[in-house]
Request: fold
Amino acid sequence: MKVYPGANGSFTLYEDEFDNYNYEKGAYTEIDFSWNDASKKLTIANRKGAYNGMLTNRKFTVVLPSGEKKTVNYNGKKQK
Reply:
């Protein structure tokens, strides 16, 4: 994911099983990301929801415009 400094920003990563309608029954996840420009911090919130076969642990690679990269190991718990 790329972070562009200069203003606060946020987005939500949505995932589901991709091949059925179980999301209509609540089988999906959302992970909120927010950038605080004043403190230059990215927060990855607690994962909301669950579905069969979801990734419980994952790595996010954060890239700044300078090309600087940081890998974040994420297990569903809030990360700063």
In short: The mean pLDDT is 95.
